[in-house]
Amino acid sequence: MAVPTTAVPAELEHGADGKPRKVRRPGPTSRVFWLIAYGLTIAAVLLRLPTLHETVRQQLRDSDMAGKVEDKSMEALAVNIGLLLAVFLSMMLLAVFYSLAAVVERNVLTMRRQAGRDLGFGLGFVIALLCTFPVHLVCSALAISSPKTTGWYYLYVLLVALSAPILFRKDWVGLDRRKIITTYAFTVGLAGLSLAV
Asked: Which member of 5, 33, 161, 173 has the greatest number of CB atoms within 10 A?
């Protein structure tokens, strides 16, 4: 009597060199959601430019360098170059943060919610999006140069970290307490990492 087996396709079983390879599985969040979130957050950062421009100009005037720069066009050039570098650095930090959130989501926070036939999002995506996009949007709307100047920002990030897993509580059924504590530890850690962005 033959035992039925399921065959794994050859391209998944062996690499080009003939050695077995590990196939990377996709994360809970669809790639299109990550790209939309990144684009929205960068747009919110760009909306903050007028406030940041005025803040940087004021700090330059208040510094001891103000007397040394006599030409206003040189002052404007310095401010614009500083803002350009700040936006570029923000874009890079956001890309790294979103990539790290995707890795954590793929390996630890594997919970998923469907958002259409082929689309879904996970816990890491929810935390990454809620800890970055609304913060920059509110800073833009209220003309706040840095969210780190207020204690409400830190409270908000902690609230996101503690409440986001509740959206995925149906995935907790059957999990032991250690796994739930690990989930919360990673959500707090990921949200805390957003403070650096």
From this structure: 161
